[in-house]
Amino acid sequence: TNGGVWEIEGRSIRPRRSPLRAPVNDISWDYEGTVATAHEDGTARLWKSDGRPKASVPALEGAGACTAVAWWNGQLLRAFDNGEVRLDGHTGGIVFRGHQGRVNSIATGGAGGVLATAGADGTVRLWHPDQSPRPMLPGHGEGQPMWAVSWSPDG
User: Fold this and answer.
1) Alpha-carbon gap, residue 41 to 38, rounded angstroms
2) Which of 21-25, 100-104, 133-137, 148-152 has the lowest mean pLDDT?
3) What is the overall mean pLDDT for the chain?
4) Phi and psi angles of residue 112, each rounded to the nearest 5 degrees, phi first
5) How many angstroms separate the CA atoms of 118 and 24, rounded?
6) Which of 80, 94, 143, 155 suits 62 as a labelling partner, its CA being 20 to 30 A distant?
7) What is the DSSP code (8-state) at residue 101?
């Protein structure tokens, strides 16, 4: 759905700014208060915690929609319709490939900095960005689409 910034005051909720132009697929906060949103038009947008725009990360040619966003060590992770997950902030970035089709969810915070991704191909994959852009485990749970993935608080 289209998103926007809303103010809550007492029992009333009202829009603070006009809704975003592209539908929002995902949202993630970093520890410093930056909010990232993933958009159907392929872009990711960064926002200050007060709702003011901070930056826009352009769409990638041929990648399709930006389907999920997450933070890893202060760097933005973006997932796409084409099955790729990209870690921005490195020279040239790091690209994780393994899903066949849309990546629906990214989770960070696993033991040792491991990332988990869930895909429309029915797989959950584990990755370690510092070691290799190859999955640590092949897909698990093949069959129906995996919509979300999360880590438990104890890793």
Assistant:
1) 9
2) 133-137
3) 81
4) 70, 20
5) 18
6) 143
7) S
